[in-house]
Write a structure and sequence with these properties.
- This protein has helices spanning 15-26, 40-61, 63-82, 87-96, 100-122, 140-156, 160-168, 172-195, 207-237, 253-256, 261-279, 286-299, 313-320, 327-346, 357-377, 381-390, 394-414; strands spanning 138-139, 200-201.
- The protein has 17 helices and 2 strands.
- The longest helix has 31 residues, at 207-237.
- The chain has 429 residues and is mainly α.
- α5 (100-122) packs across α16 (381-390) and α6 (140-156) packs across α17.
- The termini are far apart.
- The chain has one domain.
- The chain has a two-stranded antiparallel sheet.
Length: 429
């Protein structure tokens, strides 16, 4: 039986009810909100800094390093415009069963795996680099670190990449998270002798057993299963919808609007493959925080170079060298600057103030847990999750599963700080 929405002629209705009925039928669908004016001051400053810093890095450290800085700037632009969510995607899935964000992850991971297979499988590199897969050991450090990271990103309100682009867009709360991230990295390097020999199995790369074509095929099959699984969970739990109304349409959306997450996934994968091509290593973030913390200690007269961690050959060379010659530092700085350019062009760059003490404490604690966790696990949501799965490494999948468990604990822990669980539509990272 069908029911007409037309008011019955046998039913008495007032002029007011007829007006309400007419308005309900004639109300147009929601349209894009008016754009905020471009923040020309911050835009000019950020753009000048990008150009000047790229020139300085290029003339001082070479074209390879300048290219990495510019690739990082592109990553910052893409992260801001797409608001690509790692923290929010896991939160939405765990809290209400919405797998939209994880399906965007699948596209990012699948595209990255495809490009990595082409680059690493053929040995193609620029500036004389030899592209290498990202493979991590499978052991106590991986599981403990990923679990702590999952808790930390829900307390801190952002992941590693989200912390950087949020700082660039003027979100002062995330500065606290970044400070905690650096502090946690310092703590790890201080306790490194006690955790450096935790039980672990050697890395497991699919390409070592089935070749790059086989590795790619298995990775894509697993990602398809992830997409199907999140669909089944979402259909059963019927979560509230997420997704913002486009802030503008047409060509202007490229520079001032919010991008669909799927577009962001493709752009991030391409830029991440660019980092691999240029440097020979996958995009990473958190090792730079460790370096920044150690450099900061040196500035105030301390001597981290005497610590066992910084006396290792690779780490000693990193600490002795300039920050602007470090691959991950360059891309990190580029992300902050790129996000600043994008936010200013969109008219949304603004320093947010008036933080509550509970928010500050939670953000600081979350950052510390992420700093320690990322170093224990050998990477974060970028260096372990994205680069690991993109490389066909088993540790990337195990990191993801363990971080998802940490996400559940982190959401429960937020209640202890009186913050509650963010709305499903909220997205910081």
């Amino acid at each position: 039986m069908t029911t007409s929405i037309t008011p019955s002629s046998s039913t008495k209705e007032s002029p007011a009810s007829r007006l309400l009925f007419h308005n309900a039928l004639s109300t147009p669908p929601p349209s894009a909100p008016a754009l905020d004016p471009v923040r020309w001051g911050p835009l000019a400053i950020a753009a000048v800094v990008v150009v000047a810093l790229a020139w300085y890095v290029g003339t001082t450290h070479g074209a390879q390093q300048a290219t990495l800085l510019l690739l990082g700037t592109g990553l910052g632009l893409a992260l801001f415009h797409s608001r690509f969510g790692f923290t929010s995607a896991w939160r939405q899935f765990v809290a209400v069963g919405n797998g939209t964000g994880l399906r965007a992850h699948a596209l990012l991971l699948g595209t990255t795996a495809t490009l990595f297979a082409l680059v690493i499988g053929t040995g193609t590199g620029l500036f004389g680099s030899a592209p290498q897969a990202s493979a991590g050991a499978i052991g106590v450090g991986l599981f403990l670190g990923a679990f702590l990271f999952g808790i930390g990103m829900q307390l801190g309100g952002a992941c590693a990449s989200g912390t950087l682009f949020a700082v660039g867009s003027g979100q002062s709360t995330i500065l606290v998270t970044l400070a905690g991230f650096i502090a946690g990295s310092i703590i790890y390097s201080g306790i490194w002798p006690a955790v450096s020999d935790l039980p672990a199995l050697p890395p497991f790369l699919l390409s070592d057993h089935v070749g790059w074509a086989g590795s790619w095929g298995i990775t894509i099959a697993l990602l398809v299963a992830l997409v199907v699984g999140t669909r089944l969970v979402q259909n059963r739990r019927t979560p509230p919808p997420v997704g913002a109304v486009p802030s503008t349409t047409g060509f202007l959306r490229v520079f001032r609007g919010n991008w669909p997450m799927l577009v962001g996934a493709l752009v991030l994968a391409a830029l991440g493959a660019g980092v691999l091509l240029v440097s020979g290593g996958a995009w990473g973030i958190t090792s730079a925080f460790n370096l920044w913390g150690a450099k900061g200690l040196q500035l105030i007269g301390l001597q981290p170079e005497t610590w066992a961690f910084w006396q290792q050959e690779r780490e000693s060379a990193m600490l002795a060298g300039p920050v602007l010659a470090d691959k991950n530092s360059l891309t990190n700085i580029g992300i902050v600057l790129g996000a600043a350019v994008a936010a200013a062009a969109a008219g949304s760059w603004k320093l947010h103030t008036g933080m509550r003490w509970r928010v500050v404490l939670t953000a600081l604690l979350g950052g510390v847990l992420m700093g320690i966790g990322a170093r224990l696990a050998g990477g974060c949501n970028i260096g372990a999750y994205l680069a690991g799965i993109g490389s066909g490494s088993l540790h990337g999948w195990l990191w993801a599963i363990t971080a998802l468990a940490g996400t559940w604990v982190g959401l429960k822990a937020r209640v202890l700080f009186g913050l509650g669980v963010p709305k499903p539509s909220d997205s910081v990272c």
